[in-house]
Amino acid sequence: MDVVLEAFGQAARLIGSFDQKLVEIVLLSLQVSLSAVAIATVVGLPIGAGLAVGKFPGRQALVVMLNAMMGLPPVVVGLLVYLLLSRAGPLGEFGILFTPSAMVIAQTVLILPIIAALTRQAVEDAWHEYREQLTSLGARGWRAALTLVWDIRFSLITAVLAGLGRAAAEVGAVIIVGGNIDGVTRVMTTTIALETSKGDLPLALSLGVILVTLVVLLNASAQSLKQLTERRYG
Amino acid sequence: MAVPQRRRFLLAGAALASIVTTSPLAAREEYITVASTTSTQSSGLFEHLLPKFENETGIKVRVIAVGTGQALDMGRRGDADVVFVHDKTAEEKFVAQGYGVGRKEVMYNDFVIIGPKTDPAKITGGNDVLAALKKIKATQAPFVSRADKSGTHAAELRYWKAAGIDIGKDKGPWYKETGSGMGAALNTASGLNGYIFSDRGTWLNFKNRGDLGILVEGDKRLFNQYGIMLVNPAKHAHVKKTYGELFVNWVASPVGQRAIADYKINGEQLFFPNYRPQ
Amino acid sequence: MAEAVASLANSVLPLRLEQVSFVINGRAIIDRVSLSVEAGSRTIILGPNGAGKSVLMRLCHGLLAPTSGRLAWNRPERPGERRRQAMVFQKQVMLRRSVLGNITYALKLAGVSSAERKHQAWAALERVGLTHLAKHSARVLSGGEQQRLALARAWALQPEVLFLDEPTASLDPGAAAEVERIIEAIHGAGTKIVMSTHNLGQARRLGDEVLFLHQGQLKERTGVGQFFTTPSSAEAEAFIKGELPWLYHNDAVSSLPAQRSRR
User: Fold this and answer.
1) Whole-angstrom Cα distance, residue C224 to residue C41?
2) What is the distance in angstroms between the Cα of A143 and the nearest Cα belonging to chain C?
3) Is the minimum CB–CB distance between A175 and chain C shorter than 8 Å?
4) ipTM score assigned to the predicted complex
5) For chain C, what are the domain ranges?
6) pTM of the predicted model, to two decimals?
7) Which of A106, C91, C190, C208 gives 20 to 30 Å between its CA and that of A19?
8) Within chain B, what is the greatest distance between any pair of CA atoms?
């Protein structure tokens, strides 16, 4: 237990000292995960919204598949993207493997289903509430979907933050496609894995404390945003 | 009001975009990709060696540390420019198949048997690896194997065979195959208070020792040879031939060899340069 | 207004229903209703709970499709053209934006230019007395205020027909009176009113003619005065007398003393 306490202390010292390496690692973690979330949102939001209001054959099967993909194991995604980006693979000529771009791609694949599925759920729930009124006013199809998405924007932010939390916390995908290269593709989770394998558990734990704090802050802000906006906008 | 809200969202989006597009993701530098092993990385050798090369040549060395098996696979796929591992048999096969060229034997270190101070198999102080392994099997004391096709794992299997033990058949619940890197396996051994076969470098740099210590060392058979080679540009045209060769030759050069010898932990040398030009 | 805009040939009225039924799971919520909705008068759809008033309104407005029968407007709505009918529901659904924004949204859908939108939205708010709440978030308004906003929104669209589904059922008497006043004003401006209610007093106050619905069937169609003094159907009589229970069963009616004495 005092290992944990020591970790908190070490974490505080690391943060306070603005250790160059630590700053680099945290910044890269944020950049990779934020990029992945940005792309996943741009792609996933329309997919989710379209699936929620759309009526076409096979829709139900798509919904089930999307929900199932939320549980994609990161390490499997990492392996698949690795095979895709490897020089021996179909996209090898771009030479993206072992760069932050590869990590962004892997994490985007990982959290796209999460954002799309959560969006679909939120928009579908809203659609049940708004359908009659919007149809009465003459809003149909994409028009209605867009209106719904804007109206439930705060719930969607929560979905986006959920995706960000998942991305920031995973290690399986980024370690395979990134290679955990010092100064290039080393992020918080892969550093924790490395320090653990070096047996430096206190350091690994203190980095873990920092990571968990970040994720907790993310979730807390999501929650308070939800409450604040519910009170203001109803 | 809908309009000021939209503005707030756009500002957030712009801030996000600016975070995303700055520095590392857009950086461009001269570098080579070296596939090496977890034990080499865990020993800390690269942190000591690579800056010297980078300062001299301006070329960055990006090391991907995986098991020897995976490192050689990376070479086969063309995902690395240079391979730096320690499994002579596998390396020679790699070259024979045409995937590697210009192989040089550049350094060695040794393996040791790590175990609990309580030592149920009574092997402490010995310098005969085969005898020690026989005793461990006889006692059925917990033994952690990396079981990951790494150079260390390959060596471990060779010693079992040399000791006359068919470990594939004779293993029991006492033989724990973790399928992991050296550091992770050491963590497991530390947690189990079991025996484990490790390279000296990783052990000296390892901080979670628990009750473990070096019990058997010094056997000439525990010699562990490292080889470095360029991934064959004939098989993969994009391989950075010039820079890769520069690195391979540098490691074999007097400067590189001295740098290897200079690396010490607590005054103890980990790797011994042994390049001899053919 | 609407009358001036729509010439007879251009008007969407009359709406004709021919043997329209709406059957779900074998139950006929609407059972072979035939009627014609003409311009001008204020039509009240009256009936006990469960009679099918809401479903009938939704069929007329196009939110539901009949399972059999024909439903046709004088001319079909053309795509890209603003809607000629609007509906106010019992429970309001407001967008997560300002009071003014909810009206400008509807106007935008109707194809009104952005400059005109704000102007028309303000005018609508003035008519219902909500200008002091224009910048407020629509969803935090009280029930009565939201209902007035819904009316303002519908009015701003200048529809030819306004459907109202029990608009005051969940309001207190003060708010209900305010809503009735607005409905009257909308009618005065030329919009056809079709309103459902189970409130007899409201029907008497606001209606010109009554469509009495019972168990999905149109039992009676008469002028308001005549309906209340001399209803022609037994069910209507029972309803007016307040003897009809909330949830209706065939057996229950035939066992009523009024029915037995009639036979």
Assistant:
1) 11
2) 9
3) no
4) 0.84
5) 2-75+82-262
6) 0.82
7) A106
8) 82
